[in-house]
Amino acid sequence: MKVLMLNGSRRPNGCTNEALKLVAASLQEEGIESEILFVGQDAINGKLKESLLNLKEKCGQADAFVFGAPVYYASPTGEIQIILDRLFGMAKEELRCKPAALVTSARRGGTTSTLDVLAKYPTINEMPVISANYWTMVHGSNPEDVMKDLEGVAVMKNLGKNMAWILKCIEAGKKAGIHKPEVMDKPQTNFV
User: Fold this and answer.
1) pLDDT at 181 over 80
2) Cα dist. 21→35, 36, 89, 125 in Å?
3) For site-directed labelling of 70, which of 46, 107, 149, 153 has its Cα 20 to 30 A away?
4) Taking a C-beta distance cutoff of 8 angstroms, is the pair 95, 88 a contact?
5) pTM tops 0.85, yes or no
């Protein structure tokens, strides 16, 4: 089993990456592989199409996802929103019904509104959202500060454990003959 983590920060080794590394360590303790992809720059450096094609392929191979972003103006970065807007448009089947978790980091505020924006992506694509024992956020101005946020560190570890549990339950279900639901037709209703 593998969890693909997207880091939508502009800083590849910043606070969001530190949070994702904590989740990854917790997953590893449970025998689950993970990969952190830094996608923050790909949205703006002329490599968006190439990055999205690579991501679509990786999504097909992944069993679950963690979408991470720092808070910029009380919202996720524009970069992660560009990536997710496009990715969810082109990789619906590769993402559908696979568990997803959300992670954010901030110096102080804006974390709950950032989590709210990020949550819209998996919930529109039939992806179970994995939670923890508190909101999945860390605080700090740098990775060293994040490690001092003892509550945030514990939440990230709990998130990894909960993701591992759900993945193991899905695997057991598959072995018992339980598979994801078939795609249902959905009429589109316009409001004029």
Assistant:
1) yes
2) 9, 8, 27, 26
3) 46
4) yes
5) yes
